[in-house]
TrEMBL record:
Residues 15-131 form the Response regulatory domain. Signal peptide: none annotated. It comes from Nocardioides nanhaiensis. SMART domains: HTH_LUXR, REC. Residues 159-224 form the HTH luxR-type domain. SUPFAM superfamilies: C-terminal effector domain of the bipartite response regulators, CheY-like. The modification 4-aspartylphosphate is found at D66. PANTHER family: TRANSCRIPTIONAL REGULATORY PROTEIN NARL-RELATED, TWO-COMPONENT RESPONSE REGULATOR. Keywords: DNA-binding, Phosphoprotein, Transcription, Transcription regulation. This is Response regulator transcription factor.
Amino acid sequence: MHALPTEPQPDPTIDVLLVDDQDLVRSGVAMIVEHEADLHVVGQARSGPDGVAAAVELAPDVVLMDISMPGEYDGIEATRRIVEQTDCRVIVLTTFDDDECVFPALQAGASGYLLKVSEGEALVEAVRTVHRGQALMSPDVTRTVLDHFTSRATGGTFRPRLVDSLTARERDVLGLVARGFSNAEIAAELYVSEYTAKTHVSHILTKTGLRDRVQAVSLAYESGLVRPGELAS
């Protein structure tokens, strides 16, 4: 008896929660998100506290969070609470790209940081990227993060001995990640396939217990693996 062929199953829909105090901004973002077949807006909130409550109740996959909102607490504190209380991943959307906004958001647990001037295509791809478990930042924000590490100490958030758990090749890869290389650029630099480069990055995060590439950058600088001034050109 032959098994009947099965129909291919569609990819699961990514549920998105929007948190922004400006109605027009939320409406615009909602239109962009809902235009994509694999994305769905499950809820909207106008403040940090309402955003946390909605995230707990609706359990979306990804939260698009504004930083600057009036009320009991802002988007950064809301991000921290959502990360602590749920499995949601948070992308911060803001008009600011200076480190006074970037670093508190990343420290609060945001998986992505995009400027509101980003194009709609970049926004929806960011949702998909973060949902896959990867961190994401716009190029301008990435440069802000890297410049930060060349100008000041990071405060010893991660223990340098975490690097000792890595192989020599993994330390090479970590150094390139810290210098701003993408997986494709790492592959070209080390003469390996992009799949191999991606696998090395995944092993680094697993061995060190780091959440994403942003934390990996911090580890590389704090451990002395990469020194100020060694950024990619």
